[in-house]
Write a structure and sequence with these properties.
Residues 54-94 form the RecX second three-helical domain. Residues 109-148 form the RecX third three-helical domain. Belongs to the RecX family. InterPro entries: RecX_HTH_1st (IPR053926), RecX_HTH_2nd (IPR053924), RecX_HTH_3rd (IPR053925), Regulatory_RecX (IPR003783), WH-like_DNA-bd_sf (IPR036388). Residues 9-47 form the RecX first three-helical domain. The chain contains 9 helices and no strands. It is mostly helical. It has 3 domains: 8-49, Arc Repressor Mutant, subunit A (Orthogonal Bundle), CATH 1.10.10; 55-101, Arc Repressor Mutant, subunit A (Orthogonal Bundle), CATH 1.10.10; 105-150, Arc Repressor Mutant, subunit A, CATH 1.10.10. The N and C termini lie far apart (59 Å).
């Protein structure tokens, strides 16, 4: 049963009720509230044991939401790293998601580009603007080139 007073566990439950958090994000939030290192560590272990917090589940939800927003693999990996998901774990989670959802990054780049721009652009400056847009969204060079060539195909 939950205690009625403030505790790292209660605060973590309130946070997790709204959305998934990575372990590192949750730790930072709880530490910012002034809880003791040992109490926070024990809380995070308890949450993991009770399967209330999972970096794997967080990564899956995060990747799904970012793909839905039209973001590419490079940006997704960078943002996972910013949220405390280790590089190898992030790459593995992305590979699992790609396999289970059959993500086509080339198609996603085309779709994202065609939603933002109505044509490939008439001048080199306009084409460069479209390239920067996709690169900023986290698509690699090959995906950008493909999208510029095929985004407006019928």
């Amino acid at each position: 049963m939950l205690e009625s007073q403030a505790s790292p566990y209660n605060d973590a439950i309130r946070l997790l009720a709204r959305r998934e958090y990575s372990r590192a994000e949750l730790e930072a939030r709880l530490m910012a509230k002034g809880y003791d290192d040992e109490d926070v560590a024990a809380c995070l272990e308890r949450l993991a044991e009770e399967k209330l917090q999972s970096d794997a589940r967080f990564s899956e939800h995060f990747i799904r939401s970012r793909v839905g927003r039209g973001q590419g693999p490079l940006k997704i990996l960078a943002e996972l790293g910013n949220r405390g998901i280790a590089g190898e774990f992030a790459r593995s989670a992305l590979a699992e998601y790609e396999a289970s959802e059959a993500v086509d990054w080339y198609w996603l780049a085309c779709d994202t580009l065609s939603r933002r721009f109505s044509s490939p652009g008439d001048s080199p400056r306009e084409r460069a603007r479209r390239e920067r847009f996709l690169a900023g969204r986290g698509f690699d060079f090959e995906q950008v080139r493909h999208a510029l060539s095929h985004a407006w195909d019928a």
